[in-house]
Amino acid sequence: QVQLVESGGGLVQAGGSLRLSCAASGIIFSINAMGWYRQASGNQRELVAAIISGGRTNYAGSVKGRFTISRDNAKNTVYLQMNGLKPEDTAVYFCAAAPAGRTFDYWGQGTQVTVSS
Fold it and tell me: Are 48 and 37 a contacting pair, CB within 8 Å?
């Protein structure tokens, strides 16, 4: 099992920045990829950014150039740096982990990000 705990959400004005953190514990050696998803009210959960064990990253088109995903292996922590925030970025953000050869099976509890206009 893998446990994920997010932190860093909050309320920010449009154009501002936030950094989300996701601390992983448990059987973390099995993890091949980490990702951040978000779910706005009334919408489906969508992938925001992901980072693979080799360091390759990918981003949703709506956040490319504004958000950066990174990981600190020594701290078993993944970050999502969010710059140039927009009201449409308002959502609950979830951290997720995928074991090798599998989809994102492990999820955090979510952290609210609210961007005011």
Answer: yes
Radius of gyration of the chain (CA): 13
Q: CB count, 10 Å around CB of 117? A: 9
Q: Is 101 within 8 Å of 48 (Cβ atoms)? A: no
How far apart, in whole angstroms, are the C-alpha atoms of residue 89 and residue 99? 28
Q: From CA 106, how far away is CA 85, in angstroms rounded? A: 27
pLDDT tens digit sequence for 76-95 = 999 999 999 999 999 999 99
Question: Which tens digit of pLDDT belongs to each residue from 31-66?
Answer: 899 999 999 999 999 999 999 988 899 999 999 999
Q: Which residue has the tokens 């009201």?
A: 87
